[in-house]
Amino acid sequence: MGELPASFTGDLPCADCAGIRYRLNLFRDRSFFLSSTYLGREVPHTDFDMGSWTPSSDKRVLVLMGGREAPVMWRIDGSHALSKLDLDGNEIASVLNYTLTRDPEFTQIEPRQILRGMYRYYADAGIFTECLSGQRWPVAQTADNLALERAYQQARSQPGAELMVSLEGRVEMRPGMEGERLQLTLVPQRFIGTSPGEACGERFAGVPLDGTGWRLVQLDGDAVFVDDARRTPTLLLKDMRVSGFAGCNRLMGGYRLDADAIRFTGLATTRMACPDAMDTEAAMLKALQRTVRWNVLGRILELYDAQGARIARFAARPDPSASQ
Predict the structure, then answer these.
(1) Can you give the pLDDT at residue 323?
(2) Assigned domain for 88 exists
(3) 3-state class (DSSP) for residue 216
């Protein structure tokens, strides 16, 4: 994607407006800001998002994870452009534009949105670390900052300790404390509340193929549902050995890797009979036998057959060590 930070912009289709103007800023620390402006409306409206990004294992797809439930994926077109993919990570078949192009110069986005993160007040200065992006900003002593400081003083565990807070804020370029160069600064427009004892979760990042626990979520384009979570089909690939659970029986075997090429070898299962799970188990084993290529998109593992069709999709398990 070339040198970072970088700004990408483009007008994409909109179902009920003239278009949506996307502006995406990618930072070196793998965080991002995104603004989406709805064009042609009487009252202008812009949505903001921020979070973390990671490239897919084959470096062809950019995966953004912000405040939405699911990641947003973009095909990487060299260093100059990004093309939006659909919710399932597929190409969008359309004559309309779904491409953002790289701007000649980086232009800062100044988000205005609800924020959640770790706040601390020390040596007469407030610092806020936003959970989704991991970005850290000084807090301006204006707007609703007094309410934020007072709530911190009441709820902190000890002086200088971090405290989870929620607020509505604006992130903008402002001079530093002593009039130094401009820097991103949080303006707390409306304090919402504190959450003592809570902390930011692990920041979104890509996971490796090897050593990650995977659960099956899709086979041949169809979602996989199980009535009992204990029956969820899973895989663990480690040290050229594969183990897992196919829905009824335990699975074992080996695999060979060559870059993004993969072959599962010597697959075998135990011999229990489970009438409600045998169809899914048989389809999963067949998919593994047909697999020739793999790709990890953030926390999603996709397997492909010799024709390039995606035949299985797995999601990283919350606790990779809690495999079979």
Answers:
(1) 39
(2) yes
(3) strand
Give me the pLDDT at residue 276, please: 79
* Distance set, CA 24 to CA 67, 104, 318 (Å): 15, 13, 28
223 and 296 assigned to the same domain: yes
Separation between Cα atoms, residue 161 and residue 296, nearest integer Å: 37
What pLDDT is recorded for position 320?
A: 42
Q: 26, 33 in Cβ contact below 8 A?
A: no
pLDDT of residue 179: 67
- C-alpha 14/C-alpha 168 separation (Å) is 27
pLDDT beneath 70, residues of the chain: 179, 319-324
Closest CA to 317 of 268, 245, 263, 255: 245
The CATH number assigned to the domain holding 280 equals: 2.40.128.270
Structure tokens that stand for 302 in this block: 């996709």
Task: Please tell me the pTM assigned to this model.
Answer: 0.92
Residue 185 maps to which CATH number? 2.40.50.540
Nearest Cα residue to 139 out of 156, 122, 151, 164: 122
153's tokens: 């003083």
